[in-house]
Design brief:
Length: 226
Amino acid sequence: MGDARRVRWLAFRTPEATRRPSYSTLGALLVWGGCLVAALSAGSHGGAQAGGTLDGDLRVRAHGRLEHAVVYLESVPPSPCRPGQTAVLDQRGMKFVPPVLAIARGTTVSFTNHDIVSHNVFSPDGEGYELGTWTRGTVKHRRFTRLGVYRQLCRLHPEMTADIVVLPSPYFAVTGPDGHFQILGVPAGTYRLETWARGYAPVRRPIHMAGAQVQHIALTLDRERR
Ligand SMILES: [Cu+2]
């Protein structure tokens, strides 16, 4: 969903939100209000209220497309127009879904279980955590404040695995089955693009975004050397 659409959605919701004000609601409205003003002001100058689009294809050398690869931009200035502070890692059909969950630092992940059997969630990476074992209907939450990659494992089913990738900016995408990705709403500027995919060496390159335009990019990954 583009930022402009988010802004319109918020404007539509505002009257309901203000009926039951709270400090957090008001804070959010102030932030969103700033976003709205910025968007309208950019629009009135013919600029891009939604920024540019980075549209790319990611391949593995000699092996074609790669799904579930993370592509992100570093050091993009923070924007109130990109909240994206929640995400879900589900357990369904004896698998973690999605197998790769990319989030911006500060995001709270909700861990759900839609199977009829119990599952467990823990990670041995970084500071490590153990969320316990639970059945369908219970939701656990964890906020990720440190950058890094956290393998998600289940003590009951060793074959279950996923990765939560905590990124320095909310400007990221995860490739689809065809290796395609899109990062929307990127403000004009020069950034460093990076990739993460388990088993593959990261690709880094500078990227210049000029504003409200679509920029195409092709990335090729190589297997990590062991
Ligand atoms: Cu399990």
